C-alpha cells in the first residue's frame, strides 16, 4: 500500500513575504519595460532628472539600467539585447529590441487611475488641474476607443496663491505667505521654506519650515490669502524634511495653553470631533479631556457653543472668560425679555375646514 503524499505548506509569514516580494518585482518589471520608450522620448537626460520623474532614487535608477541592459528578445545574443549608453550625466537608448511603446493599461488599471485622478484633481495644489483633466480625457478616450480631441469639460481655474506655491516648490524657492489661521482667528504674514504638499483629512496643505515659528508647520492651501515666490532658495533644516514631520495638525506643544474639560456622556462625540486627549472616563460616562488652544477668546467661543455639555475645569483664566461671556449673554437675554422683545411664540390650532 502506497504511503500518503504529505504536502508541506509554508507559514503565513513566508506567504506574506513572498507576496510582498512578488508585488515589488511586478512593480519593478513594469518600470523597467516603460523605461525604454521613456528614454527614447528624452535622449540625453541626466540620471538625477530621470530619477525625479520616475519616482526612484538615482542609485535605484542606475541599478535598473544595469538590469535593463541585460534584457532583450529570446535568443539573448548581442543583437537581441537592449543596448544603452548611460552614465549619471546622460542616458540614451541605442537599441530598443522592439520595446518602442509604453505598456497599455488594462481596464481595471485605467479605472483605478481615473478614480484616483478625479479624487485629487479638485483638491488645491495636489496636481496641475489642466494636466490632470487632460490626462483624464486621454484615458477616457483610450477606454472608449475614440480619438482624443482634448478635455470636453471646463478645467477649473487654479487660485493664484496655489499656483505660486506649486511654482515655489518646483523652483525650490522660499515663499512669503499671508495666511488665515482658523485656530487663532487672525491673518498673519510669514516667510516659509516649502517642503512638499500633503493631503491630511481630505484637505491639502503646504508642509513648510516656518522661519517665524522656527518649526515645521502645515498651511491649508485654501486659507492662503496671498503667496509671493521669493528670489532666494528654500533652505529647510535637514531634519525638517522628514515626510511625517508636523503631519499632526495639533502638535502637543507645551508652550501652548492647555484646557481641562469635563464632558457629559451625551456629548462624548466632542472628543472625537476635536483635537482632544482623553484623560479619564468616570463611572457615569462623563469624560475628562484636555485640549490645547491658541487664543483665549477663540477657545471661550468654542466652549460656549457646547452649552452645558462641556464644563471648563481649568486653567482659571479660561474658566473666568467662559463665565464672563455666559453671564453677559444671559444679561442680554434678560434685558430683551424685560423689554418684551423675547416672547413665547403662540400656536394656532388648525382643524378641518
Break the fold down into its secondary structure elements and pairings:
Blueprint: H1 12-41, H2 47-54, H3 58-68, E1 83-86, E2 91-95, H4 107-121, H5 129-144, H6 160-171, E3 173-181, E4 186-200, E5 203-210, E6 215-220, E7 224-233, E8 258-263, H7 269-273, E9 277-281, E10 287-292, H8 296-304, E11 310-314, H9 316-338
Helix pairs in contact: 2-3, 4-5, 8-9
List keywords for this structure.
SH3 type barrels; 37% helix; alpha+beta; 353 residues; 9 helices
Q: What report would you give on this structure?
A:
- The chain is an alpha+beta fold and 353 residues long.
- Among the domains are: 22-95, Orthogonal Bundle (Arc Repressor Mutant, subunit A); 176-241, SH3 type barrels (Roll); 258-338, no CATH class.
- 37% of the residues lie in helices and 22% in strands.
- A 5-stranded antiparallel beta sheet has the order 6-5-4-3-7, covered by helices on one side. Strands 9-10-8-11 form a 4-stranded antiparallel beta sheet.
- Helix 2 (47-54) crosses helix 3 (58-68), helix 4 runs antiparallel to helix 5 (129-144) and helix 8 (296-304) crosses helix 9.
- The model is unreliable at 1-23 and 344-353 (pLDDT under 50).
